[in-house]
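Try this one yourself first.
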């Protein structure tokens, strides 16, 4: 389509409307609005980075506390297990005949259970 077709359009003869702004004033206002928006975006970005850094620091601190707690509990469990094993060893060495009798009884029970016919 050529521009000649639009030459008779009612819109082609209208003058631009004046909204009370001078061309220089509108540019200055648009520039000021753009600068304010840019500044606001920078502030939001800065606050987001700070908030993210604080969240990461809090997560690291929580992880550190959790790791320390787990280490303490593992150490305590190891101490208890070592104590139980030592107690068992002491009992066996103090009462060797009783220990042999208990082991034999457990072996007989397991043998009976295994040899029993299944129905």
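Now uncover the answer:
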């Amino acid at each position: 389509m050529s521009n000649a077709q639009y030459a008779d359009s009612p819109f082609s003869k209208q003058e631009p409307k004046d909204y009370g702004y001078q061309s220089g004033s509108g540019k200055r206002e648009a520039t000021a609005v753009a600068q304010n928006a840019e500044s606001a975006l920078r502030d939001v970005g800065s606050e987001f980075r700070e908030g993210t850094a604080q969240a990461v620091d809090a997560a690291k601190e929580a992880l550190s506390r959790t790791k320390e707690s787990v280490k303490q509990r593992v150490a305590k469990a190891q101490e208890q297990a070592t104590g139980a094993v030592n107690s068992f060893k002491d009992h066996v060495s103090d009462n060797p005949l009783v220990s042999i009798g208990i082991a034999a009884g457990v072996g007989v029970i397991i043998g009976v259970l295994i040899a029993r016919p299944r129905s």
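Discussion: The helical segments are 23-94, 96-115. Residues 23-94 form the longest helix (72 residues).
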